[in-house]
Amino acid sequence: MTIRAVVRGVGHYLPERVVPNSEFEQLLDTTDDWIRSRSGIERRHFAAEGQGTSDLATRAARAALENANLVPDDIDAIILATSTADMTFPSAATMVQANLGMTHGFAFDVQAVCAGFIYALSSANALIITGQAERVLVIGAETFSRIMDWTDRGTCVLFGDGAGALVLESQTGGGTNADRGVLSVDLNSDGRFRDLLYVDGGVATQNTGFLRMQGKEVFRHAVEKLAATAHTAISKIGLDDGDIDWIVPHQANLRIIKATAQKMGHSMDDVIVTVQDHGNTSAASIPLALSTGVAEGKIKQGDLLVTEAIGGGLAWGAVVLRW
Ligand code: UT7
């Protein structure tokens, strides 16, 4: 008998405002064709004025709770992956806790940039298998539109806002790969690469700052490291890349997604792709992709998934789970 962290519910929220690539053609020296062909992005959502990450996260959390047929009283902990918390502190997770009317349990943020949801899933899994929590809301939520330099065409056309959430629940499994739930995790970071992707502000500068990225270099690391971390996570439980039903990648760039699938020996039929509609939503991209994949009838109970991400830090990793 093995305790497993099993997905009981999933949901997401996207802000109302949809911004097509063509809007950037009026602001910058760019084209819809460049954005589409270099990144795969066609549109993204931007939060309304005054709408913070905790607001998006709360709406995604409510959707996941409803999908799980649970209420906030049933949840022991909230882990929110974000790099764009409303404030320096308190955590956006405690704001979500208050919004849900939850006065018990505990809530905290995880900051691993675009790999944040992988780190949050790993943390939730650890809480559940060590008996510290029975049910955990794991949320990825971002408002990257707040940290865009609107004069930098190399970054501002790539990112979007949104939120996705899972409810993970402690369930007993047989201890084999046939169990539902998180089966394997691989986490990595290497701070030597901090200059490749960062925000040039924060507590030290007393302003929020803007996202800066050496896109080509990040691209190179992504293509190399994502297939490797996915393979490591899959190998840890004695499986092969070919055993996976669905690859659910971080949605940064369609070319990276395709290269990773190819390295893993999978066709694009096995990959959940949402980057065309959401842009890069950092820590929100994986739960958004999971929720979309379920809503589209692709991901079904019992399917074997690998989800992988890389971002600022650099930080990267993968989780294998049976849905
Ligand atoms: O989520 C965290 C992880 N992040 C990522 O995974 C992002 C990784 N990087 C990428 O996705 C790609 O590197 C980008 C989409 C950011 C850029 O694609 P690229 O093929 O690497 O293009 P590039 O940066 O090498 O730029 C090619 C050209 C440059 O012009 P020159 O120097 O060749 O004359 C850029 O100035 O495209 C130019 N360019 C643009 N042109 C039109 C850069 N941005 C734009 C733009 N519109 N928006």
Helix content: 25-40%
Radius of gyration: 18 Å
Average pLDDT level: 98
CATH-assigned fold name of the largest domain: Peroxisomal Thiolase, Chain A, domain 1
Small molecules held by this entry: oxa(dethia)-CoA
The number of distinct β-strands equals 13
Q: How would you describe the overall organization of this protein?
A:
With 323 residues, the chain is an alpha/beta fold. It folds into two domains: 172 residues, 3-Layer(aba) Sandwich (Peroxisomal Thiolase, Chain A, domain 1), CATH 3.40.47.10; 142 residues, Peroxisomal Thiolase, Chain A, domain 1 (3-Layer(aba) Sandwich). It contains nine helices and 13 strands. The strands form four sheets. Strands 1-7-6-4-5 form a five-stranded mixed β-sheet, sandwiched between helices. A four-stranded mixed β-sheet has the order 8-13-12-11, with helices on both faces. α4 links the parallel β4 and β5. The longest helix has 22 residues. The relative contact order is 0.20. The mean pLDDT is 98. It binds oxa(dethia)-CoA. Oxa(dethia)-CoA (UT7) binds next to α2, α6 and β12. The site of oxa(dethia)-CoA has 20 residues, from α2, α6 and β12.
Keywords:
27% strand, 2 domains, alpha/beta, 323 residues, four-stranded mixed sheet, Peroxisomal Thiolase, Chain A, domain 1, globular, five-stranded mixed sheet
Describe what is shown at a glance.
This protein has 323 residues and is of the alpha/beta class. It has 9 helices and 13 strands.
Secondary structure layout:
Layout: E1 2-13, E2 17-20, H1 22-25, H2 32-39, E3 43-46, H3 53-68, E4 77-81, H4 92-99, E5 106-110, H5 116-129, E6 135-143, E7 161-173, E8 181-189, E9 197-199, E10 211-213, H6 215-236, E11 246-249, H7 254-263, H8 275-278, H9 285-295, E12 304-311, E13 315-322
Parallel strand pairs: 4-5, 4-6, 11-12
Antiparallel strand pairs: 1-7, 2-3, 6-7, 8-13, 9-10, 12-13
Helix pairs in contact: 3-4, 6-7
The site of oxa(dethia)-CoA has 20 residues, from helix 2, helix 6 and strand 12.
